[in-house]
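INFO batch 0412 | record 1 of 1 | parsing
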Amino acid sequence: MKKELSKEEIIEQYIKSGEIMTKERLEGKYRRYNREVNKNIKLTEYLSHHLETAKEMFPILLEEKNEYTRYLASINCFQLGIYIEKAEKNLKEISKKSKESITRFDAEMALRRWKNRDRNYIIYHTEEQ
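INFO prediction complete | emitting tokens
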């Protein structure tokens, strides 16, 4: 990402991506889902170089009503090494209470891998990490 993004722009993109990914994944439209994954990879990479912005915005995203947005935010917090306890709490809640079985499974697997300290598991892993 070449241009500077505001905290508000990043939050808006995360929420939009979470909503799109939820819808497209449940409908089996993986091409658009994968485009959103790529956007999330770029946002996470951007935030790894703008950690202060990340620290300001993730508390908001970790409380977002869309559970897939919270799932993405939790995984990205693991990647960035911030708000780990809150991310774990979110994933535990999602893994137990999500209405979507695939989302419950994703959250459960993310937690399991995190607890095993398998830091390379994350879908959004980039070679630079």
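INFO post-check: The first helix runs from residue 7 to 26.
INFO record closed
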